Amino acid sequence: MVTGRLARRLYEHPELGPRFLATLEEMVDTHWDEATLLAEVDRMESLITPLLSAEERPATLDAIEAKRTFIEGRRAAIAAEIAMGPLSTLAPERDEICASVVGTVTGSFSTTWDTLAVEDLFTTGTGTINATVEEAMPAITPVGAKIGLGTEAEQRGRAVLTLAGVIDPATVLVAFVVTDVDNITPGILALDWVEVEASLYLFNPMTGGVFPFGFLVDGTLELTEASTVDPSPVVGTFEASIFQL
């Protein structure tokens, strides 16, 4: 499994390869306590499951059970790896993961707090989106916007701003912006995936298909009007570079 470039160089080192295997064996013998780990999974499950919605429950319980299976089988998997000893023939290196700038995007939005649950965001706000990828994209209009508290597991309790602009009947450009609720006040925020997370997707309303288009970084989100008191206006602009892997 040593397919990463740095891990591979360390593993192939005449001293570090055997040292890695010895440390791995020591960690399994000393720290890998299945009973303690499984008890901790049980404890966290008891905290989480009462808060799950009916929609979230099946996938979450499946993920928890997969974690139990991983813990129960990990000792045997590592023991098999150690038993093989330092390998002279390794799996091929994986391709580099490289992000590159493919364009830029700017836009504006005007919506109202606590509209995220509204399905048709074209009824809850307006805005503009202008994107350039090699060349300017076709006119994106109309643009709708909505904002509120996220309900997905990874967004729950955070503010989620959604903008969507129609490129053609089969292509809608969607921007998702996620940040802490405390940031929804007038001011300028960095689009850096620390203070603010932002992504672009393409949505086909005819098929329901959603396709990742890129990450928004090296930019800013400026809120000129913003409050989490319902129904307060949330108005602002953004500009960023589009990164793709």
Please provide a written account of the structure.
The structure is a single chain. By secondary structure, the protein is an alpha+beta fold. It folds into 2 domains: 79 residues, no CATH class; 145 residues, no CATH class. The chain has 4 helices and 10 strands, in the order H-H-H-H-E-E-E-E-E-E-E-E-E-E. Strands 1, 2, 3, 4, 5, 6, 7, 8, 9 and 10 form a 10-stranded antiparallel sheet that branches. Helix 2 crosses helix 4 and helix 3 runs antiparallel to helix 4. The protein is globular, with a radius of gyration of 24 Å. The protein starts with a helix and ends with a strand. The mean pLDDT is 90.
Share of β-strand residues: 35-45%
| Shape type | globular
Give the C-alpha Rg. Answer: 24 Å
Q: List segments where confidence is low: pLDDT < 50 over at least 5 consecutive residues.
A: none
Count of discrete alpha- or pi-helical segments spanning 4 or more residues: 4
**In angstroms, what separates the terminal alpha carbons?**
22 Å
What structural class results from the helix and strand content? alpha+beta
Summarize the helix and strand pattern as letters.
Answer: HHHHEEEEEEEEEE
User: Percentage of helical residues?
Assistant: 25-40%
Describe this protein with a few key phrases.
245 residues, alpha+beta, 10-stranded antiparallel sheet, 10 strands
